[in-house]
């Protein structure tokens, strides 16, 4: 192995849990970058391109102060009927999102990137499709009573590992992509960089 440090440029509990469960040694340092400005500069880009660009930007922001370390950035975004959704800004906004999602297919684009110094060594994006069942107003209210404010930190207003699984009647795609990071390709990239044993 290279002996290089691995840093996760995220405070996401689900991404940390994935790396922990996989036995990866890393340090977590949240990225400080203006995601909205990056998104605004990519208005004509596709959802996977935006997720990938944000992953690279997050990793690059942390890499600036972490010389020679490999920095793993990751990002997810949600698209429903061609409309992109960010994290909800309030409980009321989360309810609006859930009412819009009801009975529709939610596309979850999750991406990851590895940056070292000022070079992106690798990046990848994946998509999962989640069919949202018809959600009643009483269910939405009960769901938010149980899951707010935790889901305020998530795109799509759900934690699949918690009560969020009740939102869906069908899920197509990789489980790690649904959790917020395409872990299998990430592990391949870490092996390619000799951060993990082959």
Q: Any overview of this molecule?
A:
Strands 1, 2, 3, 4, 5, 6 and 7 form a 7-stranded mixed β-sheet that branches. The chain is 35% helix and 25% strand. The model has no long low-confidence stretch (mean pLDDT 95). With 198 residues, the chain is an alpha/beta fold. Helix 4 (91-101) packs across helix 5. It is globular and about 50 Å long.
Secondary structure layout:
Elements: E1 6-8, H1 13-21, E2 27-28, H2 35-40, H3 47-63, E3 70-80, E4 83-85, H4 91-101, E5 105-116, E6 119-132, H5 137-147, E7 168-172, H6 175-179, H7 183-192
Which tags fit this structure?
7 helices, seven-stranded mixed sheet, about 200 residues, Maf protein, alpha/beta, about 35% helix
Spans where pLDDT lies below 50 across 5 or more residues? none
Strand content: 25-35%
Count of alpha and pi helical runs: 7
CATH architecture assignment name: Alpha-Beta Complex
Number of domains: 1
Rg computed from alpha carbons, rounded to a whole number of angstroms:
17 Å
Mean pLDDT across the residues is 95
How far apart, in Å, are the first and last alpha carbons? 9 Å
Globular, elongated, flat, extended or rod-shaped: what is the shape? globular
Provide the CATH topology: Maf protein
Helix proportion: 25-40%
**Biggest sheet record:** 7 strands, mixed
How do the SSEs run, as a string of H and E?
A: EHEHHEEHEEHEHH
Could you say which structural class the secondary elements and strand pairing correspond to? alpha/beta
């Amino acid at each position: 192995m290279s002996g290089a440090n691995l840093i996760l440029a995220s405070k996401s509990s689900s991404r940390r849990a994935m790396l922990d469960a996989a036995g990866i040694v890393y340090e977590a340092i949240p990225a400080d970058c203006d995601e909205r400005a990056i998104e605004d500069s990519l208005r004509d880009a596709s959802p996977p391109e935006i997720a990938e660009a944000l992953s690279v930007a997050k990793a690059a922001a942390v890499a600036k102060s972490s010389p020679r370390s490999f920095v793993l950035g990751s990002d997810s975004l949600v698209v429903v009927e061609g409309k992109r959704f960010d994290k909800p800004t309030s409980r009321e906004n989360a309810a609006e999102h859930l009412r819009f999602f009801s009975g529709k297919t939610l596309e979850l684009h999750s991406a990851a990137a590895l940056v070292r110094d000022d070079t992106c060594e690798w990046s990848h994006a994946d998509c999962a499709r989640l069919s949202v069942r018809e959600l009643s107003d009483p269910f939405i209210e009960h769901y938010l009573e149980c899951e707010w404010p935790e889901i305020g930190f998530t795109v799509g207003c759900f934690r699949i590992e918690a009560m969020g699984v009740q939102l869906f009647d069908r899920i197509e795609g990789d489980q790690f992509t649904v959790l917020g990071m395409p872990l299998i390709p990430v592990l391949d990239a870490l092996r390619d960089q000799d951060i993990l044993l082959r």
